[in-house]
Amino acid sequence: MASLDSLSAAQIAAGVAQGDFTATEVAQAALDAIDSREKDVQAFLQVSADLALEAAKRTDARRAAGEKLGPLAGVPVAFKDNMHLVGTRTTCASKMLANYDSVFTATCVQRLLDAGATPVGKTNMDEFAFGSTTESSAFHRTNNPWDTGRVPGGSSGGSAAAVAAGEATLALGSDTGGSIRQPASFCGVVGMKPTYGAVSRYGVVAFGSSLDQVGPFGRRVEDVALAMNALTAEGADPLDSTSQNCAVDFLEHLDDPVEGLTVGVVPQLMEAKGLSQEVRDALTAAVASLASQGARVVEVELPNIASAIAAYYVIAPCEAFSNLARFDGVRYGYQEPDCQTLAEQTSLSRAHGFGEEAKRRQMLGAYLLSSGVYEKYYYPAQQVRTLITQDYARAYQKCDVILLPSAPTTAWRFGDVSDPTQMYASDMFTISNNICGNGGISVPLGLATQSHMPVSAQLQGPAFSDRRLLRFARAIERGVDQGLGLGGGAPVAPDFAGRGGDL
Amino acid sequence: MKKLQEVLRDWEAVIGLEVHTELTTLDTKMFCNCRLSHDDPPNTNVCPVCLGMPGALPVPNRKAIQSIVMAGLATNCQIMKHSMFYRKHYFYPDMAKNFQTTQGPVAFCMHGHLDLSVEGEGAAERPEWESTAGDGTPVERAADGSYTVPIRILRIHMEEDAAKMVHSGGTEGRITGASESFIDYNRCGTPLIELVTEPDLRTPEEARLFMEDLQQTFRTLGISDCSLESGSMRCDGNISLRRRGETRLGTKAEMKNINSFKSLHDALEYEICRQAEVLEEGGIIYQETRHWEPSHHRTVVMRVKETEDDYRLFPDPDLAPFDLTDDFINEARARIPELPHAKRDRYVRDFGLKPADARQLAGDPATAALFESAVALVKPGEKDAAKVQATVANVMVNLLPGHEGVSAEQVFSLARLLATDAITFAQAREVLEAVDGTDDDPERVVDERGMRQVSDTSALAPIVEEVLARCQDQVNQYHDGNKKVVGYLVGQCMKASKGKGNPKLFNQMLREALEA
User: Fold this and answer.
1) Gap between the Cα atoms of B478 and B484, Å rounded
2) Residue B426, class by beta-carbon neighbours within 10 Å (0-12 exposed, 13-18 middle, 19+ buried)?
3) What is the mean pLDDT of chain A?
């Protein structure tokens, strides 16, 4: 008897295609795992058992009819709750949208379903993706599967935790300033933010339109590559005018050696204030592992990267203010009862529908866009954006990818960080990549020496070199596998492995 | 209040227009694939994009951008290859996203102009001392007072229209005090172009003519039906006064609810006179929005603008900046047909039309096409070809308005009947009514109804002789100097010929006989 915990997405799809087990059996195993693990993780806002079983039944029927199955046939997938899926609510973890039923299905979700995936549910997140711990969810917190007293990271904390706890084989998250890579790092799974434009944003509730990008979580680099194939194979989405065709086979060259390729290290970042020693040590080991596989290591400079957080906290709140203006309680969402005027209803619906962090960011954005202020902040922020983009372009003349931490520390205990600006600083290594639109991926390096929590390396690359990122990520994964004697990829967190999920 | 002429002796009226035009001839909305409609049931042409549902994204309508580029080229604008969309924020349910997608400092079309030809009585509105155009060039007047003045266009930008709101239970359809409000999102997201002029207009007539020219130009481009009545073309007028010779601008008021050319003229005329009265009595003009009430023939305050609204304009991150290619612009240019101005000049030059007539015919694309088809039926070598041509124009200008179902062949046939004196103008009107909407040949109608005039002098001579013999009193009066009496004699001849004689010929023959 197999356990879902030990199967990769490719193995599940192959097993379903070969008739080793049915998609329905896989769906039931996933729902069984969720059933027994969820009370301790609380990764989901909604488990879509009916949708999962219907989708699995369709997959099985297709196989019975002799049709060719998709590359994700029967693979249990979870979606961050800012992605529309007809038949589920899309709440963005906000009281504002607590009862909002999806009216259409997001392109990224649809593409995974078209590849045969089984949708098991919608995952918890920071409200409207504002946050780094998933604590700003209006509904409940999500626990880190490696230590339930610690945060899972955020904002896609539910998706990362669901995969780390073995409740789903794959999950989608969205990354505006690190919201895939940081929780992936905290939960010890692979998380990829593809290049801006690679994955359609249509149907994903917008936070910062020029920064948002959807990407996959998995426990293995191969699973993430498989998901990338499904997300991009059909090319640009005609419904998202910022999406681009970048269809390549992400599995091709995945296992190619990195010998002769160059990895860049930024000394300034490796010595950054706030970077913990155990993370630094893990990174040093990862660099050594790549070097031992034949990659050349060079030092590169990113002179303006220190301004990235400041620029981000101008651009992102401006876009967030604008994108969230539509939530006024008139046609959908939370509507304040018993108001006398339209202005009162709009005002109070927003005041009571949004949580603290959502209001803080929107007020910041409203202030930054007001006349007189806009010129002082928005223009310089855009200039910083250009400078950082140029920094990266110069660096990539000297190297193929840059290796850096995903987060300055491993996951912290609930309550340890409460000051918003300190929280914002935890995105210091991820934000710059959203600013310039390039791709990045977080790859587990095992457990850190002090906290004994998962620690990860982040790889960043030039725009639309996401396949190269996956190849380097696979090389790091190989190194970790050999060092730890693991049989491929990151394991399900030990407290959860084997609790249900038998196939 | 003083009259306009009197006010404009001492005051200079400075007028600028903001003209919104819905691109009604497109199939779909600005950022989604919903159908454009004016009369479908409410909220039937809507989707997640134009309803502003979370997660929806805009995709720009390429044809709409082609249309605005055509509008820019037709109004001598510079086409800006690089421009972008901005978001303009305000909380009101007529804009589903609570921001309108519009353009920022750089519009698709910048810095154009239209040359306005002002003729006839309208030319007299501009006082003689007002001899400089807004761009500083001198305004030369022809002997009859007519003049041509360039009106500069600041910009034409692309945006989306808001939804239509209806409030019931309140006063005058306003939201204040209303018990229910209804929103129809069919209109939300309709492609809209906004043209802003420089404050170069000086009289209500100039403003009216400018709007008319613009309507004719956009209709000829085929980008909109430009209906002021239905609101597919809307105009706000900004107006301020300053003393003759003053160079600083006065405080302006904005005029709304202008839904006809007459309203535009009358509202501006009223407002100029009102402002002059206020100023002359030592009062001050407030920067405010005023509502034109056609039934009371006055403007009333809608709202006073104490501070500028803060729309928090910033570049729309969902829409990449545009880089229009030369090919795209040239393609738009190639789609521009002959424009009303050029057509007007050609009609005057080639067919000898009066400028006012040429303006009327060239202004409406369907009318111009009908005119040209009818004129083309006149064979160059034909007897009286020039006369028939001129008569075609005459028929088109004076008889045709109000008749939708008349073909070029029918117009030509009717013109030839008139030009050869086969029927009178009054009869032509009757024939036109008869053939409108049918395939009937006017020649046949004239024959069937026995209308054809007799223009054969040998057939008419006996009648003239008989009438002169019978009306000796009138003949004597004529010889005593009362030449007008010929009219009576013509009437007698017409009666005697049962209406079929050619009255002009009778007139001529009577005079000849009387003078002989």
Assistant:
1) 8
2) exposed
3) 96
Is residue B332 one of the residues assigned to a domain?
A: no
Would the CB atoms of A326 and B54 count as touching at under 8 Å?
yes
- Chain A residues whose beta carbon lies within 8 Å of the beta carbon of residue B93: 328, 330-331, 342
Q: Which of the listed residues B273, B302, B326 is the one where a domain comes to its end? A: B326
Residues B26 and B133 in one domain: yes
Asked whether residue B333 is assigned to any structural domain, the reply reads no
Over the stretch A335-392, which tens digit does the pLDDT of each residue have? 999 999 889 999 999 999 999 999 999 999 999 999 999 999 999 999 999 999 999 9
Burial of B429 (0-12, 13-18, 19+ CB in 10 A): middle
Would you call B514 exposed, middle or buried from its count of C-beta atoms within 10 A (0-12, 13-18, 19+)?
Answer: middle
Q: Is the ipTM of this complex over 0.90?
A: yes
Same domain for B282 and B195: yes
Catalytic site includes residue A398: no
Same domain, residue pair B344 and B489: no
Q: What is the DSSP letter of A379?
A: H
**CA–CA separation, B222 and A194 (whole Å):** 44
Same domain for B318 and B350? no
> Would residue B229 count as lying in a domain?
yes
Question: What number of other Cβ atoms are within 10 A of residue A254's Cβ?
Answer: 18
Predicted local distance difference test score (pLDDT) of residue A1: 66
B174 contact residues in A (CB cutoff 8 A): none
B393 and B246 together in one domain: no
Asked if B239 contacts B268 with a C-beta cutoff of 8 angstroms, the reply is: yes
The Cα B431–Cα B446 span in angstroms is 7
B178 inside 8 A of chain A by CB: no
The average confidence (pLDDT) of chain B is 91
Instruction: Give the CA radius of gyration of chain B.
Output: 29
* Domain CATH number, residue B498: 1.10.10.410
Burial label, A117 (beta-carbon count in 10 A; 0-12, 13-18, 19+): buried
Q: Is residue B266 part of a domain?
A: yes
Task: Please state which CATH class domain A4-301+393-484 belongs to.
Answer: alpha beta
From the number of C-beta atoms within 10 Å of its C-beta (0-12, 13-18, 19+), residue A341 rates as exposed
Q: Is A367 on the interface with B (CB under 8 A)?
A: no
* pLDDT of amino acid A338: 95
C-beta atoms of B312 and A241 within 8 A: no
Instruction: Reply yes or no on whether A179 is catalytic.
Output: yes
Rounded to 5 degrees, φ, ψ at A463 are: -55, 140
Instruction: Give CATH 3.90.1300.10 domain extents, chain A.
Output: 4-301+393-484
- Could you give the CA distance from residue B441 to residue B431 in angstroms, rounded to a whole number? 9
- Could you tell me if B246 and B354 lie in one domain? no
- Which structure tokens are listed for B338? 């002959």
**In a shared domain, residues B470 and B491:** yes
Tell me the C-alpha distance between A164 and A42, whole Å: 12
How far apart (Å, rounded) are the C-alpha atoms in residues B93 and A185?
42
pLDDT in tens, B9-33: 999 999 999 999 999 999 999 999 9
Domain range for B414 is 340-448
pTM of the model as a whole: 0.90
**How large is the average pLDDT for residues A438-456?**
97
Distance CA A224, CA B75 (A): 54
Are B429 and B464 part of one and the same domain? no
**Burial readout B169-188 (b: 16 or more C-beta within 10 A, e: otherwise):** eeeeeeeeebeebebbbbbb
For residues A38 and A148, what is the distance between their CA atoms, to the nearest angstrom? 12
Q: Which of A82, A326, A370 sits opposite B96 (nearest CB)?
A: A326
At which of B429, B448, B467 does a domain end? B448
Q: Provide the pLDDT for residue A83.
A: 98
R_g of chain A computed on alpha carbons: 21
Distance, first Cα to last Cα, chain B:
60
- pLDDT of A486 reads 58
